[in-house]
Amino acid sequence: MSISPDALTTLPKAKDFLRIDPSIIEHDTFIETLIDSCSEQIERACRRKFKARDLVKKFKSDIPHFNLDFPMVSLSELKVDNSILVADDYLIDLELGTVEVLAEFNWAEPLIVEVNYRAGFEAIPKSLDNACQELVTYKYKLSREDRVGLDSKSIADASASFLTDGTLPTVAEVINLYRRQKVVSV
């Protein structure tokens, strides 16, 4: 198996974090599965993809400003009602992924907007990479200790409680930092 191109970390980094000798390969397939699963879990929680990719978004809008995937790397083409806009016709915030159309259009009725752009991180930020490694480590150790799905365990006069939702506090902090906010219409 190979890791997804959207994975937030690599097998060598995960094995290093787990303190597994690189020459030991018997668990590599399982660790790769965990890397993909944990990467997807973080992206779902953040409501976005992180690896840079080329996108084409086509939508209707009745306002001259809109939010796109972020961070934006570049905007190659912006059309409003099939009119190609030039750079002086709009403002763009690459970090926030926002575009505001300055050109005059009648926004009283929804207009068709088409945006060709590149968004995401060319290199995954260290905080996301580390969060994925922590989550992989947690799930790997949990599987090795036969505690998957347990809330607590009692042995004689002792008991222990476990995290079961798979989100560690440090990972939750990173998720909150990168989470796309939901837009609520009023």
Overview of the structural elements:
The protein is of the alpha+beta class and 186 residues long. It has two domains: 78 residues, no CATH class; 67 residues, no CATH class. Helices cover 30% and strands 26% of the residues. The protein is built from four helices and nine strands. Strand 8 and strand 9 form a beta hairpin. The longest helix is centred in the first third of the chain and has 19 residues.
**Unreliable runs:** none
Alpha carbon gap, first and last residue: 47 Å
Radius of gyration over C-alpha positions, nearest whole angstrom: 22 Å
Strand content: 25-35%
Strand order within the widest beta sheet: 1-7-3-4
**Helix content, binned percent:** 25-40%
- Number of helical segments? 4
**What is the chain-wise order of helices and strands?**
HHEEEEEEEHEEH
Number of separate strands: 9
Structural class: alpha+beta
| Mean pLDDT level | 88
Number of domains: 2
* Main sheet summary: 4 strands, antiparallel
Q: Give the overall shape.
A: elongated
Topology record:
Blueprint: H1 11-18, H2 28-46, E1 53-61, E2 65-67, E3 72-80, E4 83-84, E5 90-93, E6 98-101, E7 111-119, H3 126-144, E8 152-155, E9 158-161, H4 169-178
Antiparallel strand pairs: 1-7, 2-6, 3-4, 3-7, 5-6, 8-9
Helix pairs in contact: 1-3, 2-3, 2-4, 3-4
